[in-house]
Amino acid sequence: MELIQNIWEWLMNNILKMKWLEDGMGLLVTDVFHLSLEERIGQTIHFFLYDTIKIFILLMVFIGIVSYIQSYFPPERTKNILGKMKGIKGNIIGALLGTLTPFCSCSSIPIFIGFTVAGLPLGVTFSFLISSPLVDLASFMMLGTFFGFDIALYYVVVGLVLAVVGGSIIDKLHMESQIQDFVLELRSDGIESSKEEIKLTKRQRAIQAIREAFLILKRVYLYVLIGVGIGALIHNWIPTSFITTVLGEDNPFSVFIAAFISIPMYADIFGTLPIAEALLYKGVEMGTILTFMMGVTALSLPSLVLLHKVVKKKLLFVFIGIVTIGIIIIGYLFNFII
After folding, report:
1. Please, which residues have CB within 8 angstroms of residue 157's CB and are 6 or more apart in sequence?
2. Predicted local confidence at residue 222, as pLDDT
3. How far apart, in Å, are the Cα atoms of 33 and each of 231, 270, 299?
4. Between 248 and which of 135, 174, 244, 298 could a Cys-Cys bridge form, CB atoms 3.0 to 4.6 Å apart?
């Protein structure tokens, strides 16, 4: 048993947490930059270099794996699967399929449009829309490396529950008339994706997965850099007393604040992880951190602007309300349970 534990700890430290990279960046800061890791500027540069490189490596590996799996579920096949599902069963399938798409909230909108044009039930498409940026296999692995796999599993479960419940509520409200007219016109014109499914070899799938990993990295690298930069500043320069006053357990409104300050931000989960890590170091409760992360990934202002081009205001506000209330409840429940 001790041997298994030692092997697991070695894998966690050297493969996932990349202790070797942390030590290497420490040597770079001290021996090349001639800065002390005991001083704020040295700690800030070390945090920025280590977290940035670690996230880029993890992104390439995990997105590559997820993209390879996703190659077996092209949009047309996904539409065919979801088109047969109605009610709560369809919402569950929609949410689960969302986990196979490693997209940010803005990137999920075109697929959402495609599903809507194809005539899929509105509730199912919204379950997909909530789940896609919020939960995927890569985010589970990344969360596990930062906070432990118990936290990662909780995040995935509550994210899926939120997606299923949110889609089910929208389905029950029968808000099909709240889709923008141009989408309905496309549907009535019968514009659909090609029904031919291109057969790919394993090598082609691998090449496609690597290409997808690079494309996603190219799309999100700036937000990762910004997120790591903010995280480094929070971790090393903002006083702990200020953070805990605003978002600490002594503030009963910390989860509300985390939910609402997250909306103007735009990033996927990979960009929010460094900020979340820094907040955790400052003593912010994990439920508050999860609320912040969910708000950034599912309710970013740019994605809401894009979504407004597809749905009318009433449905947009219903979507915002459902997700906001959901992530606030999730945050308080986690803070209460843990």
Report:
1. none
2. 80
3. 21, 27, 40
4. 244
Query: What phi and psi values does residue 74 have, to the nearest 5 degrees?
Result: -65, 160
Instruction: Name which of 19, 273, 293, 296 is nearest 142 in CA terms.
Output: 273
Which pair of tokens denotes residue 18? 């990349």
What parts of the chain have a pLDDT lower than 70?
1-2, 5, 8-9, 11-14, 16-17, 63, 66, 70, 73-86, 100-111, 113-115, 117-119, 138, 182-198, 216, 219-220, 223, 240-241, 243-244, 264-271, 301-303, 306, 338
Backbone dihedral region for residue 187 (phi beyond 0: left; psi -120 to 50: alpha; all else: beta): alpha
At CA 168, angle to CA 165 and CA 170, rounded to 5?
A: 110
At 203, list the tokens: 């090598």
Q: How many CB atoms lie within 10 A of CB 123?
A: 26
- 68's tokens: 């390879």
> What is the pLDDT, as a whole number, of residue 120?
74
List, in order, residues 6 or more apart from 282 with CB less than 8 Å away. 234, 235, 238, 240, 243, 244
Sign of dihedral through CA atoms 60, 111, 307, 286? negative
Burial 243-262 (b: 16+ CB within 10 A, else e): bbebbbeebeebbbebbbeb
Which residues, including other chains, have CB under 8 Å from residue 251's CB and lie 6 or more apart?
245, 257
- Neighbouring-strand partners of residue 311: 179
